[in-house]
Design goal:
The structure holds two protein chains of two kinds.
Chain A: H1 3-9, H2 11-45, H3 50-62, H4 65-72, H5 82-107, H6 111-119, H7 124-154, H8 167-176, H9 179-211
Helix pairs in contact in A: 2-5, 2-7, 2-9, 3-5, 5-7, 6-7, 7-9, 8-9
Chain B: E1 11-20, E2 23-33, E3 38-42, H1 49-56, E4 64-69, E5 72-73, H2 79-84, E6 86-90, H3 101-105, H4 107-111, H5 116-129, H6 146-158, E7 164-168, H7 176-193, E8 196-201, H8 204-210, E9 213-218, E10 221-227, H9 228-231, H10 237-247
Parallel strand pairs in B: 3-8, 3-9, 6-7, 7-8
Antiparallel strand pairs in B: 1-2, 1-4, 4-5, 9-10
Classes of the chains: A mainly alpha, B alpha/beta.
Chain lengths: 218, 251
């Protein structure tokens, strides 16, 4: 039986695991964005926190993923279900690109534009939401893209703690020494990652162009 | 913006010193500008001109001395209210690149919650005032020429009709022909508006064309502050140096 035949025969399960996979990575990316983007904004406002926050997010990234899953296992509520645990772990990994890109994006806004806004009498909130965030949006979306691709890749390992997703096929295939089965998990996971990269990449370029209009003059 | 108590000058510098990390950028500046008057701050880069402007709209606060706007110390002003009463124009406009021309110009009226119809009428009026066609309203700053961007910058500063206008080398980045056009138009505009204007430049010709008074600065100090007619006759060495630099025919 070749790979395609295997996929067709198991299409129901491929679809289910793909959906599980998307949910794991999607919810994790969303959670990370909800925490990471405000944290990134915070450290542009309170610079003395920036070292601690960026350093902390960096340290999380250095923890091997299987070990992080293991560490979180005894946690109450979280540890009860593999998927909860996986989402939390993936969200922790995804924090770093989101915090860093939000911070870098806002820091990268032309200081003359920010000062002009301040001099026109914009309040801090108006400056943030009308000037800084829109102009940083391309860089921030780049952070979301990196986080999403990272989560989709790492989510395959979540099957090791019973969280489901396309990693199921990979681990099963490894146990069965069957490449067909491994590929049935690996190829859809790779395609999902490419799709997310492409889709968010397009959004990023659109937002980036908008922010870059001023520079495009001849 | 609040009315001036007992006819105070629009802007007053009362022995103002500003230091940054101990380095003096401005020393003991005494200067005032009345309503309807145009003062040009002349000086080379690093002479403290821009610092002077930023002390007016409270982007900076003096280390010692007082800056008063309409008789009230800038430290006592609500900075947001103060700034919305002062139009600010900088080189190359400082426009928001992600806003259309219309949104850039309407910025202050919108955050001041003017009714939409009034904002729209004001934008149209201002486009005409600065000599821009209405078709440009939907363009982005990146799609305009340098001169057009500068006109939008002036329109944005005038939008809420502030009684005070401060301009930081607004025409410095323009080609000579556009610059000369804009200078003449600005002079006509000011004759009509009669605002309190502080205009920063390092260009003596621009200063002579636009100023009622010229204040010459050097290394954070005010050297002379003279009506424009007396400026060219001044015996001050630095004034002479300036006049000579600008009268030398190009080689």
């Amino acid at each position: 039986m070749n790979f395609l035949q295997f996929m067709m025969a198991n299409r129901q399960q491929v679809l289910e695991l793909s959906l599980e996979h998307i949910t794991l990575a999607g919810v994790a990316t969303l959670l990370a964005a909800l925490v990471g983007i405000p944290l990134g904004i915070l450290i542009t406002r309170v610079p003395r926190l920036s070292k601690a926050v960026l350093g902390g997010a960096n340290v999380i990234q250095t923890i091997p993923s299987l070990a992080l899953f293991g560490f979180l296992l005894p946690a109450p509520w979280i540890g009860e279900r593999g998927s909860r645990l996986a989402i939390l772990a993936l969200a922790l990994y995804a924090l770093m690109p989101l915090i860093r890109n939000t911070y870098a994006g806002i820091q990268g806004v032309d200081p003359a534009v920010v000062e002009a806004g301040r001099a026109m009498g914009l309040t801090d909130g108006q400056l943030l939401f009308q000037v800084e965030l829109p102009l940083a949006s391309g860089v921030i979306v780049a952070g979301v893209r990196i986080a999403a691709v990272l989560s989709i890749g790492l989510a395959t390992i979540a099957a090791a703690i019973g969280a489901g997703g396309l990693g199921e096929f990979i681990f099963r295939g490894l146990a069965m020494v069957n490449n067909q089965v491994i590929l049935a998990g690996a190829i859809p996971a790779a395609l999902l990652a490419l799709l997310a990269d492409f889709g968010l990449g397009r959004l990023e370029r659109r937002l980036g162009r908008r922010a870059g209009l001023q520079q495009s003059r001849g | 913006m609040k009315a001036a108590p007992n006819n105070a000058p629009a802007i007053e510098f009362d022995h103002v010193t500003f230091r940054l990390n101990g380095r003096p950028l401005l020393e003991d500046l005494v200067l005032s500008v009345n309503h309807g008057e145009t003062l040009v701050l002349l000086g080379r880069s690093g002479s403290g001109k821009t610092t002077t402007l930023k002390l007016i709209n409270r982007l900076l606060l003096p280390t010692s001395g007082e800056v008063r706007v309409n008789g009230i110390r800038t430290a006592d002003w609500d900075p947001i209210r103060l700034r919305r009463g002062i139009g600010y124009v900088i080189q190359d406009g400082g426009l928001f690149p992600h806003f259309t021309v219309e949104r850039n110009i309407a910025l202050v009226p919108r955050i001041e919650n003017w009714p939409p119809a009034r904002v729209e009428a004001r934008v149209r009026e201002l486009l005409a005032t600065v000599g821009l066609s209405e078709e440009l309203a939907s363009r982005y700053p990146g799609q305009l020429s340098g001169g057009q961007r500068q006109r939008v910058g002036v329109a944005r500063a005038l939008a809420a009709d502030p009684p005070i206008l401060i301009l930081d080398e607004p025409f410095g980045a323009l080609d000579p022909i556009t610059r000369s056009e804009m200078q003449k138009e600005f002079r006509t505009l000011q004759q009509r508006m009669r605002k309190a204007v502080i205009f920063v430049t390092h260009d003596l010709r621009e200063a002579l064309l636009l100023a009622d008074r010229i204040a010459l600065m050097e290394q954070g100090r005010l050297i002379v502050d003279l009506p424009v007619a007396e400026f060219s006759r001044s015996e001050d060495l630095l004034v002479r140096a300036y006049i000579e630099a600008f009268s030398t025919p190009p080689a």
